[in-house]
Amino acid sequence: MNNPDIKLRTITMCRTGVSNAEVARRLGVPKGTVGYWKFQDRARHPDLYPPAGAKCPICLGTGPTDRPYSYLLGQYLGDGHIIAKPRQHTLSITCCDDYPVIMDDTQRAMVRVLPGANTTRVRRTGCTDVKSYSAHWTCLFPQHGPGMKHTREIELADWQSEIVESHPWEFIRGLIHSDGCRITNWTEKVIAGERKRYEYTRYFFSNVSSDIRGLYCWALDLVGVEWRYANWRNISVAKKNSIALMDLHVGPKF
Question: Under DSSP, is residue 106 helix (H, G, I), strand (E, B) or coil?
Fold first, then answer.
């Protein structure tokens, strides 16, 4: 195969930690060819590849990369879960197929938070599970436990709280990208006998866990965003100044 564009795309994906099998599936390139191109490129540019084997920042005592971790934590609390097995755990975050940029951001955050762990994507109806495999994901997300998240207490460890306090917008963005939305409402008013249509933006975050909703509200308070409960499970941001802040740091989903 001699297609410079396909080769460049293959190498780019390999450098971000995407597995050979996943690259082959997504680009239609033979798995052996992917491995050969990756071998050649890594020999020339070893510094552009994550180190072999996942290096757990918790076990090493170094702490995770703050900004990507804060975003990934929000994603995990929203639409993520960990399947724990004796020798390897799987972090899985479900992303809607309508938002490919969010899917890319999620996989990129996984690679940066736990370099060396293999990542892949598994298609389902209307959505895709972005997965990463390592025995260390439970180190990074101590909230893991039996059953659904809303059936157990969800509380951040001190080191997690410090990361969110340092990068609250990344945490908010992760939560919105998983369980939130930005919508445009409209209404009509009669002014001077003329009916006019007015549009206004709102952000909603919905989660059945009161603990997770509380963490979202706490993060909004950190950045000065006004919020209120629309109902027992939906938190609304509608004030003009707060919408401007949310648009600046979060924005629409893509």
Answer: helix
Inter-residue contact 39 to 14 (CB < 8 Å):
no
Answer whether 103's CB lies under 8 Å from 121's CB.
yes
List 197's β-bridge partners, or say none. Answer: 188
Cα angle 250, 103, 215; round to 5 = 45
Report the topology of domain 57-155. Endonuclease I-creI (3.10.28)
Global pTM value: 0.76
| Paired strand residues for 186 | 199
How is 32-101 classified by DSSP, letter by letter?
HHHHHHHHHHHHH-GGGSPPSS---HHHHTS---HHHHHHHHHHHHHHEEEEE-SS-EEEEEEEETT-HH
Q: Where are the domains of the chain?
A: 4-48, 57-155, 176-249
Residue 178 three-state SS: helix
Which stretches in the chain have pLDDT values below 70?
A: 1-2, 50-54
Reported as a single tens digit per residue, the pLDDT across 147-177 is 899 999 999 999 999 999 999 999 999 999 9
CATH 3.10.450.50 fits 176-249, yes or no: no
Both tokens of residue 140?
A: 């990074």
Pick from 13, 174, 5, 206: nearest CA to 99: 174
Q: How far apart (Å, rounded) are the C-alpha atoms in residues 254 and 252?
A: 7
Residue 219, CB-side half-sphere exposure with 13 Å CA sphere: 32
Task: Give the position of tokens 């306090």.
Answer: 165
